[in-house]
Amino acid sequence: xxxxxxxxxxxxxxxxxxxxxxxxxxxxxxxxxxxxxxxxxxxxxxxxxxxxxxxxxxxxxxxxxxxxxxxxxxxxxxxxxxxxxxxxxxxxxxxxxxxxxxxxxxxxxxxxxxxxxxxxxxxxxxxxxxxxxxxxxxxxxxxxxxxxxxxxxxxxxxxxxxxxxxxxxxxxxxxxxxxxxxxxxxxxxxxxxxxxxxxxxxxxxxxxxxxxxxxxxxxxxxxxxxxxxxxxxxxxxxxxxxxxxxxxxxxxxxxxxxxxxxxxxxxxxxxxxxxxxxxxxxxxxxxxxxxxxxxxxxxxxxxxxxxxxxxxxxxxxxxxxxxxxxxxxxxxxxxxxxxxxxxxxxxxxxxxxxxxxxxxxxxxxxxxxxxxxxxxxxxxxxxxxxxxxxxxxxxxxxxxxxxxxxxxxxxxxxxxxxxxxxxxxxxxxxxxxxxxxxxxxxxxxxxxxxxxxxxxxxxxxxxxxxxxxxxxxxxxxxxxxxxxxxxxxxxxxxxxxxxxxxxxxxxxxxx
Length: 511
Hints:
The chain has helices at 8-18, 57-68, 100-104, 111-121, 128-136, 138-147, 180-183, 200-215, 267-273, 275-278, 292-299, 342-352, 383-390, 396-408, 490-508; strands at residues 36-37, 46-53, 73-77, 93-94, 156-157, 169-170, 190-191, 218-221, 223-230, 236-243, 246-258, 282-283, 304-305, 310-313, 326-328, 358-361, 376-380, 431-435, 444-447, 450-451, 458-460, 466-472. By secondary structure, the protein is an alpha/beta fold. The strands form five sheets. Strands 1, 2, 3, 8, 9, 10, 11, 21 and 22 form a nine-stranded mixed β-sheet that branches. The chain has a four-stranded mixed β-sheet with strand order 4-7-6-5. Strands 15-16-18-17 form a four-stranded antiparallel β-sheet, with helices on one face. The longest helix has 19 residues, at 490-508. Mean pLDDT is 92; it is low at 1-27.
């Protein structure tokens, strides 16, 4: 073959062919799973129109809309239980622009305000095309959830964070915090499936799984995806899986949707791609979040984006009285407004402060007695003594607290503009320092980096071209969520919405 005749697709196909003889087990836990050449498949053991790998919100949403598009759908799940990480979450969907629930509770919202908040409050240069489509179709997407049996209570909560009061609508991000309250009209966009006791994720997945079953979606548990299968022109047409130790070849005539979650439980992969998250004390996700879908996609030539990004959270609230305290770094300098969404502070600590931070409070802003999520570092009757006991540089903490107190007594916060209702001087002993460091407190984390996809959830290769027949959604992709994570519900909203795009497009793909 002459050099001038080698194009991108030929190169990808030749790479896959050269790897066809590699055993399934021959890859590092942090590496790729090189795609297999279809010519090496002697027999397809299972044939379906659309194959979905993963049974969380992204995978089941894809399955529902693919089935409604007329395709036969098979969902395979690595674990022995369906639902994925979504079932472990609060089930919050970030939705706005005037949803039926917002209107029923008397709140007005616009697509423009929702777009501005998502586009500008997170990491620079987000996926604006995805944000635009998500915001423009948010009202219809919420209706889709309701139509699939997800229940919402006509009740609003004005508390900080996800509550236990059976409310289905709340401010799930920093919309009411500075500077966003001044830049776009705040609106509550956290839509929580009605279920007692933080069980919204379970309720969401029960509803979606029931809808999928009713439509005739087939599911099979304890099936581990191993490698994708590609044709000579680069099309993805199948997957090699492991079922009880045996290799099984599944052919997907219209498309494969990778919805296997992130990689927070693949510790080697986290250390390689997202080292800041490695030391966070609580890797939070379903046990199947091992990066397998990302590795399979990369093995077929897919581009992977923003693999360092993720969610990191060590909340200082609830209860809300603690918001009157201040968070400082190891130099005794204040970090941010304590009223903002707690993942924003988590991002600052994790990515900008080497994972080290502290919470300063007095008697009124102290944590509840018996709360051991944040270790007590020191206690004293004066800030000067507290500073010495905790080992801050001389005068640093005193300066920070004095500056904060001077303005807080007047209901002001010139540095971070914390709302007046959360402002009060730190002046009532005993004074305390709690450890907010990522390896000392209960600091949960999961990953946001993944495969590059377009607005139809088609996977993009390293040359910027669509890989025909391959789709991905949820934490398998680089989607709406970024570091900092700006609101509860962005992730599950991204999963359900772009899972649907994958399912719809795959069902229509008959090439």
